[in-house]
Amino acid sequence: MRKKLESILRRAIGKGVEISTPESEKFGHYSTNAALKLAKVKKAAPHKLGEPRPVGRENPLKLAGELVSKIEKCAPKDFFERIEIAAPGFINFHISKNVLRQELFLISRQKEKYGRSDAGRGKKIIIEYSSPNVAKPMHVGHLRSTIIGDSLANIYEFLGYKVVRWNYVGDWGTQFGKLIAAYKRWGNKAEIEKSPIKELLSLYVRFHKEESENPVFANEGRGEFMKLESGDAGNKKLWYWFRVESIKEFKKIYGLLGVKFDITLGESFFEPVLKSLIERIYARKIAQESEGALIIPLEKYGLPPALIQKSDESSLYLTRDIASLEYRLKKYKPFEIIYVVSNEQTLHFEQLFAAAEIVRLKKAKLAHVKFGLVLGEKGKKLSTRSGDTVQLEELLRKSVDLARKIVREKNPKLSAKEKEAIAEAVGIGAVKYNDLKENRLSDISFDWNKMLDFSGDSAPYLQYTRARLKSILRKARITKKAYLEFLGDDIEMSIIRKLAEFPEVVRRSAEILMTNNIAKYLYELANLANKYYESTPILKDENAPRRNARLVLIDSAASIMKSGLGLLGIKAPEKI
RNA sequence: GCCCUCGUAGUCUAAUGGAUAAAACGCGAGCCUUCGAAGCUCGAUUUGGGGGUUCGAAUCCCUCCGAGGGCACCA
Q1: Considering only residues 495-514 of protein chain A, which place a Cβ less than 7 A from any atom of strand B?
Q2: A198 C-beta less than 7 Å away from strand B
Q3: ipTM
């Protein structure tokens, strides 16, 4: 429907006409500011020297009138119910009820396939997300990367791209030197086997505390990492053990979250090629020595130099990222690589992308999809080192527990198995939605009450709305002939318009690499659906064809809600 | 000191330069004898200060104030 409007406007006015969907339908189903924009262009039109400068600008209202008559000529009869012009020069389109009904018919046929496209056919995108660090518990910060990345991957797949979901585990670096040093000083094997991440974390936290008071520790940590990197068998064995135990625990959390990866490859995977990478870069005179270390100068990008080798000859995060980039380009030939990493690392990615250009590795579009921090209640950064983070496992458990309690209260007749599945879908969904509904760039403060609020603008609200629609649909049968001509109430037309916007919302979401517009869309759709539910009898509608048409409408709404929630990685149970 | 984000209602967040700045939580008043009250209806409370660009600014530019993050051997 929107596509149709786009093509009409293209024929009538030309390319690049902006179409918006006004908040209030008072301003039409669709609206354009083309007349305002064109009036401005005319004003700015060049004039010959010596001739008088054009006075004023084209009157936008007058121009809008001219555009409307052109548009009417290009549009099929009965496409528009009416076109209005509003000050200062907006053109507002009211689509005819029949066109809306036709769109609903299409949606009712396509169901969850509605909005899929092949826009990305033949294009491969690597999305790197989650990326937890070995020996550290996943906390609420990793949650953002994990679910934003997972959702973006879903969205790109929906649009026909081939997506490679990549978990780039932090399993190499100086921190492992510190951990090994700490283990050698105070470690206890049995304790670690009992609860690995908890023990490893407490070793790490203790080491950091001592290090801040005594510089001997820092050297010790660096020394152990150097040994690890040069292949010391004892250290390697410890490292491997820490890694295996950690990944086991991560998998538990991914299971809970319902998040999957195609590739789980950490930094350590690239360790064997680092030496030769550094030599190659050095030989090409791209890198230079500075204070005993090797750097790539980035002055022309206005950035501080990129350090690729420490003075003790061990490698760095950035070095491994360059190696990883080279590997990905060669092996996958992607169209784009998206790094879903918090905005603390903005400088790192600016350096990486600049270095990639210098090293001639910029053969794909590279994007850092950054997001704000999850701050503690006092608005301060949460730190693993000081041990004050909210751990992900705890958060998910609490949320599922609460959902379980509520479903037992509200729906005692369901089987134990059903209740458990619902508790998980609702509890996990609530946590995911809380992040995904927000603009990812904002810092958010962590708040238990907000996280565990299952009313209002929340996943449980959406799931509940759909479950109510489904419970009506379970009690009825939809006939083959739809009778959509019986739909005509304002709210019915509003719902259809909303449903018809879904493809555009998804397209836009991929374009801006954001998820909050999908969340907002689903909330608005659910809002309309609830109003409809409260105001309009469906099963009890005495007019049989109209009853059927209404069933088709809510069936379509339920499909789009499931589809949209799916893009956010949230389950939509039939009953909740 | 330099760089990057950001400042919207009591709280927490929305808003491709667009129309009356929008929700949620919390607060107040209603609605279960129409299909599930995790719901619906109604109400009060908002763009840090000052300039500028624009037909139009929360959004762009300048400046001041405030917050968070980053800045060579962490990741």
Answers
A1: 514
A2: no
A3: 0.95
